[in-house]
């Protein structure tokens, strides 16, 4: 009698933990898909990455599988694809597109304006 109640507590905690992990994976898939959709097609070619269509299909399948068929193996494979996009493709696209992480300015700007090196 004691073990049934105690075991159900851990079952509930385990199911909540997997639900949270699944939601995090789903959220990451949504963000990666949105970033892939917002980038320009020519930026993919200029960054020498796969085409926009390729990444939208790959990340769209990942998103669909996370929603319809949440199997851990498929979620992990999709997570790897989304991670590759976010850490390799997206920074290359941003660099080519001119969105290097700063809002305006040049690479020689300091915190208080342009830095000329004492010239």
TrEMBL record:
Q: Which controlled-vocabulary keywords does the entry list?
A: Membrane, Transmembrane, Transmembrane helix
Any Pfam family matching the protein: DUF2516
Residues forming coiled coils: none
| Skewed-composition ranges (Low complexity) | 105-119
Highest rank taxon of the organism: Bacteria
The reply on keyword Transmembrane is yes
What InterPro entries does its record include? DUF2516
Q: Where is this region: Disordered?
A: 95-119
Task: From the Swiss-Prot or TrEMBL record, give the protein name.
Answer: DUF2516 family protein
Q: Which organism is it from?
A: Streptomyces solicathayae
């Amino acid at each position: 009698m004691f073990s049934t109640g105690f075991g159900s507590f851990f079952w509930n905690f385990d199911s909540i933990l997997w639900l949270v992990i699944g939601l995090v994976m789903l959220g990451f898939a949504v963000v990666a898909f949105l970033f892939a959709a917002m980038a320009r097609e020519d930026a993919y070619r200029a960054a020498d990455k796969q085409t926009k269509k390729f990444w939208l299909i790959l990340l769209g399948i990942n998103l669909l599988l996370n929603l319809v068929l949440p199997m851990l193996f498929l979620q992990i494979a999709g997570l790897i694809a989304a991670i590759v996009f976010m850490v390799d493709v997206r920074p290359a696209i941003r660099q080519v597109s001119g969105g290097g992480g700063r809002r305006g300015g040049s690479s020689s700007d300091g915190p208080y304006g342009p830095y000329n090196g004492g010239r």
